[in-house]
Design goal:
With 149 residues, the protein is α/β, with parallel strands linked by helices. Helix content is 59%, strand content 11%. It has one domain: 3-Layer(aba) Sandwich (Rossmann fold). It is built from seven helices and four strands; from the N terminus they run βααβααβααβα. Helix 3 packs antiparallel against helix 4 and helix 3 runs antiparallel to helix 6. The mean pLDDT is 95.
């Protein structure tokens, strides 16, 4: 049994968000595999916020509203415990302050605040699940390397 943190690149395919869902079939197949393997799926707050921003920037108003409705349902289902994934806790102020202190050095290397928060959540999950594989499920090369096994 593993723990997977769902990155924005994957969540955009699950929703789907137009022009950000090119890997939808592959992602849905992998999602089914992970569910069948009893993988614990976690939805980081950064993925929720970033996906919401991508939706807000869609140029077609009808697609923007329809996608926003579906997105809201998926996130609310996660909050209600009726989806295959669970949202991670919203950030504690002290943790956020620590990230702010770290962020300039990470920004210098091209790591955004959303990715930093997902990496820190991965580290937290590794410490909570020492006997389980913990990985970031991402299409982004720089996040795919975060895998405890």
């Amino acid at each position: 049994m593993s723990v997977a943190l769902i990155d924005t690149s994957v969540f955009c395919n699950i929703i789907p968000i137009p022009n950000r869902d090119q890997n939808r079939d592959e992602i849905l197949d992998r999602l089914e595999e992970l569910i069948n393997d009893s993988t614990t799926l976690l939805l980081p707050m950064a993925a929720v916020l970033e996906a919401g921003n991508h939706i807000a920037h869609l140029t077609n108003g009808h697609a923007r509203r329809d996608t926003a409705r579906l997105f809201c349902k998926l996130v609310c289902d996660a909050i209600d415990g009726t989806s295959p994934w669970t949202p991670t806790p919203f950030w504690d102020v002290l943790i956020l302050r620590k990230w702010m202190n770290e962020f300039p050095d990470h920004a210098k290397t091209g790591i955004g605040l959303g990715d930093l928060s997902i990496i820190r959540e991965w580290e937290r999950q590794c410490s909570l699940n020492r006997t389980r594989r913990v990985f970031i499920w991402s299409l982004d090369e720089h996040l795919r390397g975060y895998d405890s096994h």
